[in-house]
Amino acid sequence: MRVSLLGTGDTTGTPTVGCDCDTCTAARERGVERTRFSVHVENERTEESLLIDFSPDFRYQFLRDEVPLPDAAVITHVHFDHLDGLGNVFRVLDSLEVYAADETDPQTGKSVAGTVRDDYHYLDPLTVVPTTPLETVRICGLDVTLVPVDHPPLVCYGLAVEDPVTGAKLSLTGDTSYDVPEESRAVLADADLLLADGIVPASLCEYHPLGGRHEDADGVPRTFGTKHMTREGALGLAAELNAEQTRLVHLAHFYPADEAFEEPLAIDGEQYVL
Ligand SMILES: [Zn+2]
Ligand SMILES: [Zn+2]
Ligand SMILES: [Zn+2]
Q: Membrane spanning segments where (predicted)?
């Protein structure tokens, strides 16, 4: 499978509109960017493409990276930066299956699948497929398993994507704190490529009103506030999950400029063949 990182930024992206911080300035100077989150997975055997999350930057990403339009998609959760690009398929795709979790979110009273169906009821090409977490479904010839993660107050899911023929495996954490449930960790383990939410370095937890949590043995917070992993948390999870290769994604412009483009922080347009 060919994995293209279409969007590696957090909800404001890098550069952020109207921002002249050192990191946004450095991004402009280097000609790199981190648009809102989306990952494109192409099954080269079947020539089908699976899109993970609909970035508000959908149109721009597909023009920029020239990847095939998706045959199917997965939505991890209903935050703006992962869902609100879905309207872009209007008059672009004739049909699209969208897979999303079927568990009711106590916060919204709906599942992710239910929210997608209700919010986009006017989009005729869509077929929403309610999907049970921790059960594997075949999409675009790939075995896809949604796994619950921790992104309060909303339900959110990571996923594993495995090629049943080659055994190649991609895992994504989704937006999550370090508190990923054990049964989800088991599904995400031993990937050829892990994409992990590492929104900021742990050093920035002192600036979050809720601080950090899930400290490691050295007292370094692995969760920033309540919703996302720190860089250190994401790398710690990657080590525990025994990932062959790890890229950090969902990155904020709050990374200091001298750390923002260091390995293994991803930028848009990276491609991996697994
Ligand atoms: Zn900035
Ligand atoms: Zn989110
Ligand atoms: Zn997000």
A: none
